[in-house]
Amino acid sequence: MKTDMKLKQDVEEELDWTPDVDATHIGVEVRDGVVTLSGHPASYAEKLAAEVAAQRVSGVKAVVVEMDVRLPNAEVRDDEEIAHAAQSVLRWTVGLRADAVKLQVE
After folding, report:
1. Domain 4-67 adopts which CATH fold?
2. CA angle at residue 39 from 41 to 24, to 5 degrees?
3. Distance between CA atoms of residues 16 and 12, nearest Å
C-alpha cells in the first residue's frame, strides 16, 4: 500500500504527463488514499482530464474535485451567446429533427 506522500507524487506526475492538463493550475492533496484536486483549469475538458488522470493512478481510493473552471477572458460567453451557438450546431446536425433536443442554458 502506498503512503499518502507517494500517492500524491504519483498523481502529480500523472497530471504532468497528461497532455490535456496544465498541472501548474491543479493542486493535489491526499489523505488516507483519497485524492483532492483543487485549482482552476482553463476548460471543462481539462477538468475532466485531470479527474481521469488522478483515477488512473494505482492506489487512489477516491477523487474529490474542488476545481472551478476559469475560462480565459477572450473565451467567456454569456448564456444568450451559448444558447445561440448550441442552436446553430443543432441546426447543422444532419438527421436531427428540429424538435428532438430542447436547450436550457444556466
Report:
1. GMP Synthetase; Chain A, domain 3 (3.30.300)
2. 70
3. 6
Contact 39, 10 (CB under 8 A): no
Going from N- to C-terminal start, the domains of the chain cover 4-67, 76-106
Residues 6+ apart with CB under 8 A from 22: 41, 42, 46
Model-wide pTM > 0.90? no
pLDDT tens over the chain, length 106 residues: 899 999 999 999 999 999 999 999 999 999 999 999 999 999 999 999 999 999 999 999 999 999 999 877 777 788 899 899 999 998 888 788 878 888 888 8
> What's the grid cell of residue 18?
497528461
